[in-house]
């Protein structure tokens, strides 16, 4: 079978994960090029990833005729312009979430995506490729829970990353806690219910680092969502989880309820020692979703090879960002926001 030559932009926390997957764990793909403004990252690409060509300028990379597809893992504010440029130069494009941070720019990007129907576009909501979430979705679709009435979602990053987040929070725009963290949960709410969110009310609190107030970022936030058919959503998001990486989802239905990772267990080991009975917890997103990242990349490559569009598209990106930005607005204005 044909091998898809991929170029990656961004080799930070997640870029390295995707790059290593593309190097050896994704079928029928090869990591051919990498782009970053940071020379150490390009050295890393050559030495540790076996990348043949490196670029400091993204447009130069997408012009490379050897390349079939681009993986965008750069800061969120760059996604829209990089998606557009990749498509214009004839590449298939995978972009990390969120699709963008500005609704006008996202709509413009959707128009460009629609101009290239033969090229594939996919957005990185990898939880839809996690086997536990897939199992839960099958149960919901098979009516095991009856009608879903409420979904409660936790997405809290480990405390160990908080200090460095605070250091760079002013310099790089994450889009705020809801666009950065809750966007996965918002996507899950839409995916499980097939409904759009109509109203949101969000609150938040900065305690450890009060300076986050000044840059419009949050250490912990929460939001209530009302969906078009009155289904309810509760989001809890944060950046200060002391036991590791806490991603948990609960669905309550008329016939039953289910929880995915109600304790975010790392594995099946239980330790009994002076602390009592200890269950290790998952520590970060590369660990918790390692297989999901591989599965989603496999799906993207397979879509290219079998000429079908991925199931996660730009509309999923637009709708989830609308909700995340409404949560931000609700928090900032202290009022209920109708979408
Ligand atoms: P990071 O800050 O660790 O890495 C960003 C990378 O982009 C660095 O390699 C940097 O050199 C590069 N970069 C910066 N400016 C650039 C430019 N002008 N042109 C090209 N490259 C540039 O960020 P991280 O955490 O890896 O996040 C990257 C993206 O992935 C974000 O959009 C984030 O929302 C998303 N993400 C998704 C996750 C998921 O669960 N699916 C988890 C973590 C991040």
UniProtKB/TrEMBL annotation:
GO terms for biological process: NADPH regeneration. Residues 4-119 form the Gfo/Idh/MocA-like oxidoreductase N-terminal domain. Coiled coil: none annotated. Gene3D superfamilies: Dihydrodipicolinate Reductase, domain 2, NAD(P)-binding Rossmann-like Domain. One of its GO terms (cellular component) is cytoplasm. Belongs to the Gfo/Idh/MocA family. This is Inositol 2-dehydrogenase. It comes from Vagococcus teuberi.
């Amino acid at each position: 079978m044909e091998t898809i030559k991929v170029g990656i932009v961004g080799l930070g926390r997640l870029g390295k994960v995707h790059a290593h997957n593309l190097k050896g764990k994704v079928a029928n793909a090869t990591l051919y090029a990498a782009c970053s403004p940071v020379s150490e990252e390009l050295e890393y690409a050559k030495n540790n990833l076996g990348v043949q060509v490196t670029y400091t300028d993204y447009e130069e990379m997408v012009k490379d005729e050897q390349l079939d597809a681009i993986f965008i893992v750069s800061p969120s504010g760059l996604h829209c312009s990089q998606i557009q440029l990749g498509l214009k130069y004839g590449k298939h494009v995978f972009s990390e979430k969120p699709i963008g941070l500005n609704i006008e720019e996202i709509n413009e990007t959707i128009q460009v995506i629609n101009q290239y129907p033969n090229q594939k576009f996919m957005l990185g909501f990898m939880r839809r490729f996690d086997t536990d979430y897939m199992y839960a979705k099958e149960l919901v679709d098979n009516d095991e829970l009856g009608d879903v009435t409420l979904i409660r979602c936790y997405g809290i990053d480990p405390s160990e990353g908080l200090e460095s987040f605070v250091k760079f929070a002013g310099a790089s725009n994450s889009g705020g806690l809801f666009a950065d963290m809750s966007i996965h949960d918002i996507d899950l709410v839409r995916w499980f219910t097939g409904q759009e969110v109509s109203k949101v009310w969000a609150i938040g609190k900065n305690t450890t680092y009060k300076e986050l107030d000044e840059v419009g970022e949050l250490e912990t936030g929460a939001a209530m969502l009302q969906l078009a058919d009155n289904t309810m959503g509760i989001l809890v998001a944060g950046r200060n989880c002391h036991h590791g990486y806490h991603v948990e989802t609960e669905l309550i239905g008329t016939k039953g309820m289910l929880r995915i990772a109600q304790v975010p267990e790392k594995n099946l080991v239980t330790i009994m020692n002076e602390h009592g009975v200890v269950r290790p917890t998952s520590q970060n997103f590369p660990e918790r979703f390692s297989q999901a990242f591989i599965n989603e990349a496999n799906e993207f490559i397979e879509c290219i090879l079998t000429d079908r569009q991925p199931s996660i598209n730009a509309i999923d990106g637009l709708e989830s960002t609308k909700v995340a930005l409404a949560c931000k607005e609700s928090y900032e204005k202290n009022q209920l926001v109708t979408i």
